[in-house]
Design a protein that fits this description.
Layout: H1 7-22, H2 31-42, E1 48-54, E2 61-65, E3 73-78, H3 84-101, E4 109-111, H4 125-138, H5 141-147, H6 156-166, H7 170-180, E5 185-191, E6 194-200, H8 202-206, H9 226-229, E7 235-242, E8 252-258, E9 264-270, H10 292-297
Parallel strand pairs: 1-3
Antiparallel strand pairs: 2-3, 2-4, 5-6, 5-9, 7-8, 8-9
The chain binds zinc ion.
Length: about 300
């Protein structure tokens, strides 16, 4: 049964189709066209017939049943999304809801900015599935690993090249790399000097290197972070070595990117091969939530 396929399987099957059709030059994925053509061929009774920008208030994307009862679906993305990469990921996320969830959720979906960046299933199963589908469709793991092998360190130059290749945001490309890398690394997303959320690679997390935000008072980025020291400027900042006690109980190299459009800052913390031994057994649940919704609503 096609409806029972999981997000990775769906993404993989469509990737095989795209590779067959377009060969090596198949990136970036034209997801708006794919969603419409594929659904019209395979699900002619309830296809996606429209993908377009909408004046959403607070939502980034939506999967909407046509109100005339025809069974047709539309995908909308917020007209405030000015980066092509964010648009692509949003459309792919909604296409994921269509393939995976439309039978169970006949009224469709309205998805907020924070729904697009949480890939862990503890957050919300359907949102995480839509993101895993989108990541798998736009950035297939075999191709991503060929760009940055699992045993290689990455920086924002390399991840930026991947973001360009797949036409996704730098955040999405970095999350994809973190999902398979053997390196210890953490992505921290902040706004106005406060941490919104953070995500560790598995080797980092298992070694106790993570940044807890959920359920805690708003946490500022360290004063010595290049993001704090360059507040007001825009763009990539040279990697900076920071002492233990700045971000973690070990020294880190911070790669920083201050984005002008969303006044978001990305800090990619790369760590040594091994955690320091003094690591105690504290809470180890991965959790990245977050004050994201509060900040994103106050825009
Ligand atoms: Zn969603």
């Amino acid at each position: 049964m096609k409806q029972d396929k999981g997000p990775e399987r769906w993404a993989n099957d469509l990737s095989i189709l795209l590779t067959t059709a377009f060969g090596a030059a198949r990136f970036p994925v034209d997801v708006a066209s794919l969603a419409q053509k594929y659904s019209q061929q395979v699900f002619p009774g309830d296809p996606i017939t429209r993908v377009r920008p909408r004046g959403f208030d607070g939502f980034e994307g939506a999967l909407i049943p046509k109100p005339d009862g025809s069974g047709e679906w539309g995908i909308g993305y917020s007209d405030s999304l000015r980066l092509k990469g964010r648009v692509n990921f949003t459309i792919a996320h909604e296409f994921g809801h269509y393939l995976l969830h439309r039978k169970k959720y006949p009224n469709g979906f309205q998805c907020r900015p924070e729904d697009m960046v949480r890939w862990d299933s503890e957050y919300n199963r359907v949102e995480s599935e839509a993101n895993r589908f989108a990541a798998g469709l736009l950035m297939p793991l075999d191709d991503f690993r060929a760009q940055i092998p699992a045993n290689r360190a990455a920086d924002f130059d390399m991840l930026g090249a991947c973001a360009e290749r797949y036409e996704v945001s730098l955040t999405a490309a970095t999350l994809r790399w973190l999902s398979y890398t053997q390196k210890r690394a953490i992505l921290v997303v902040s706004r106005d000097g406060y941490i919104l959320w953070a995500r560790s690679s598995e080797p980092a997390f298992k070694s106790g290197a993570f940044i807890k935000v959920a359920g805690l008072p708003p946490r500022k980025i360290p004063l010595m972070s290049p993001v704090a020291r360059n507040a007001g400027s825009v763009g990539l900042i040279e990697p900076t070595r920071l002492d233990e006690g700045t971000w973690l109980r070990e020294p880190v190299t911070e790669h920083s990117m201050i984005s002008e459009r969303y006044d978001l800052s990305l800090s990619l913390l790369t760590l040594g091969a091994r955690a320091p031994l003094a690591d105690t057994e504290e809470e180890r649940e991965q959790d990245a939530v977050d004050y994201f919704s509060r900040f994103s609503r106050s825009r």
